[in-house]
Design brief:
The structure holds two protein chains of two kinds.
Chain A: H1 3-10, H2 20-33, H3 35-56, H4 69-100, H5 103-107, H6 114-142, H7 154-175, H8 183-196, H9 208-217, H10 219-232, H11 240-265
Helix pairs in contact in A: 2-6, 3-4, 3-6, 4-6, 4-7, 4-10, 6-7, 6-11, 7-10, 7-11, 9-10, 10-11
Chain B: E1 6-17, E2 20-31, E3 35-39, H1 46-53, E4 61-66, E5 69-70, H2 75-80, E6 82-85, H3 97-107, H4 112-125, H5 141-152, E7 159-163, H6 171-186, E8 190-195, H7 198-204, E9 207-212, E10 215-220, H8 222-230, E11 233-238, H9 241-250, E12 255-259, E13 262-266, H10 273-280, E14 287-290, H11 293-301
The chains are: A mainly alpha, B alpha/beta.
Chain lengths: 267, 307
């Protein structure tokens, strides 16, 4: 096959039916069995951040764009939980199910096909983002940091941004020869995003080159930009560009990851 | 005369992995209601053939139909009517025994109430009722195997694929599984079994297909294969030059095999021939036994190790 053929094959639209939800439901059932473990750590973590960075470090930080520091980082914490929820679900989580538990092998002997398994996993990843970020959002609300009624839109954003992170994560999973491989994206992709996406200080404080990289390549930059607008009600810069960016990246990586995973699993 | 109904039919079926031809243009048929065994050493292409039948591996060439439907065109319809018990344990460790069955039933769109009733029946059938609410890691190897079989039956399949169903099991567990397989066959389920235990194949299969290097090298009823290739009885004697000479003289047509200091004599001579021979030439450590499918298998596929 030529390279162009390969690319065309990788971007072929998958055939999906309602059966993706059967796969989603399996993951949901497992999650609900251990919901206490799944619920409390994500509840406590943002509290530590808000207290340590918001109150502690915040004392030494002058207001940013008219907001107190704790207000500035609140939407970042929501966005980071969106990123972590789906990214780790669709890297480590999916890899364990695929490779160690052979769960995918078992499912594809039923009328559910491999495309639906992968799509179901990614929808589940997006759901994890929705759940984690809603917990963080509740904590942020309890700290009195919600300044706009637009915040009710955040769960929708969380699901779709979560689907984007899931899709990117699944591409890494399709390339992973073993589970240690995920150290690369975790430290070289997730960590720089965590720090350099307008999360804990405005992007504009960084050298222009880094700003450019953050805007062009970091999904978290766009997620933070939207959630900050919705949480604080300052949508002066239109979120349309970020929404478009997320939509385009989601579609491409969603389709790509399904095809890459099929190639990996059905040899 | 109408022959038995064909349920699976393969015509120059081929499967390539990169440049390696794992299944090499094979033709075979499986008839409705029979138990058909695919025998062969490791790497013969048995599992690959199974995977093409239940539509998870695309074909590299040829045709394969199940119940008249092409595996390429109607994978979902075919998968609905097949139960698969794979070689390796892929039970879901995140769920209990019962939940493994219920979650699996959901993939087939089986309504919850039906799934629950059927799960309880199947747990009874495989003597797993007491383990209903236990997690998978608490099951023994034999129980896991039985649960995999139970899971394969959750959709009430017409065709059951068993890929090495008793590998690694103790005799008790093996016999329980054999017993259940026979019961299913009696109910009219078509069973396709891969194994490299020849006693298992002889015990269960109406027909055996022997595969080696991706090809089907022989097929037939186990008793016929034994008769055809290794005769009725086998004489085994400890190796001795003198004995060897005598044997060669007495049985000029026979195939003599020397393995680990024992001579094996295969002939098409009738029952009782060896007994007469031993009367005339009393030999220490001699043993007459019935020829079996393992003799056939080793004759056809050779003795070198496959890894």
């Amino acid at each position: 096959m030529t390279r162009a053929n390969h690319l065309a094959a990788d971007l072929r639209l998958p055939k999906l039916t309602y059966r993706v939800w059967r796969v989603w439901r399996r993951d949901w059932d497992v999650f609900m069995k251990t919901f206490k473990v799944n619920f409390f750590p994500p509840l406590l973590e943002p509290i530590f951040y808000l207290v340590a960075l918001g109150y502690g470090l915040g004392q030494f930080v002058q207001p940013i764009e008219g907001q107190r520091y704790i207000q500035f980082i609140a939407p970042a914490l929501v966005s980071i939980s969106i990123m972590y929820g789906s990214f780790f679900e669709c890297t480590y989580g999916s890899f364990v199910r695929m490779y160690f538990q052979k769960t995918f092998d078992a499912i594809i002997t039923t009328p559910v096909n491999i495309e639906e398994v992968i799509a179901g996993e990614m929808l589940w990843g997006a759901t994890r983002s929705l759940i984690s970020s809603s917990i963080v959002l509740a904590v942020v609300a309890a700290f009195g940091l919600i300044a706009s009624p637009l915040f009710v839109l955040i769960p929708f954003v969380a699901f779709f941004a979560g689907l984007m992170f899931s899709s990117i994560a699944m591409c890494f999973t399709s390339l992973a020869p073993n589970i240690d491989f995920f150290n690369y994206p975790a430290f070289l992709f997730i960590t720089p995003m965590f720090l350099l996406s307008g999360t804990f200080f405005p992007l504009t404080d960084l050298p222009e080159f880094i700003q450019l990289v953050a805007k062009a390549l970091f999904p978290l930059t766009h997620t933070v930009s939207i959630t900050r607008g919705l949480l604080l009600g300052n949508l002066e810069q239109s979120p349309m560009l970020s929404l478009f960016w997320i939509g385009a990246v989601t579609i491409v990586f969603f389709v790509l990851s399904i095809n890459l995973m099929r190639r990996k699993l059905i040899k | 005369m109408a022959g038995p109904e064909v349920i699976i039919s393969a015509h120059s079926l081929a499967r390539k992995y990169n440049d390696f031809l794992a299944v090499d243009n094979i033709d075979f048929r499986v008839y409705k209601g029979e138990c058909c065994g695919f025998l062969g050493p490791n790497g013969a292409g048995k599992t690959t053939t199974m995977k093409m039948i239940h539509c998870v591996l695309p074909l590299s060439g040829g045709e394969l139909t199940v119940a008249g439907m092409s595996v390429t065109d109607k994978p979902r319809e075919i998968k609905k009517m097949i139960g698969v018990a794979p070689q390796e344990n892929n039970l879901d460790p995140d769920f209990t025994v019962l939940h493994n069955l219920l979650v699996y039933a959901r993939y087939f769109d089986i309504p919850k109430a039906v799934a629950l009733r059927r799960s309880d029946e199947l747990l009874g059938f495989f003597q797993l009722e007491e383990k209903r609410d236990v997690t998978i890691e608490q099951l023994s190897t034999g129980m896991k195997r039985r649960l995999i079989l139970a899971r394969a039956l959750i959709n009430d399949p017409q065709i059951l694929l068993l890929d090495e169903p008793t590998t690694g099991l103790d005799p008790q567990a093996r016999h329980l599984i054999w017993d259940r397989v026979r019961a299913l066959r009696k109910q009219g389920v078509t069973i396709i079994l891969t194994t490299h235990y020849m006693d298992e194949a002889a015990e269960l299969c109406d027909r055996a297909l022997i595969m080696d290097n991706g090809k089907i090298i022989e097929e037939g009823r186990p008793v016929d294969l034994v008769k055809k290739h290794v005769g009725e009885e086998v004489l085994e004697i400890e190796f001795d030059e003198q004995v060897m000479k005598t044997l060669k003289k007495e049985f000029p047509e026979a195939r003599l095999e020397l393995v680990s200091e024992r001579i094996r004599v295969f002939t098409d001579a009738p029952h009782g021939t060896f007994e007469n021979f031993l009367k005339n030439f009393p030999t220490k450590g001699a043993m007459i036994r019935n020829a079996n499918l393992e003799d056939v298998f080793l004759k056809l596929t050779g003795r070198q190790l496959r890894e």
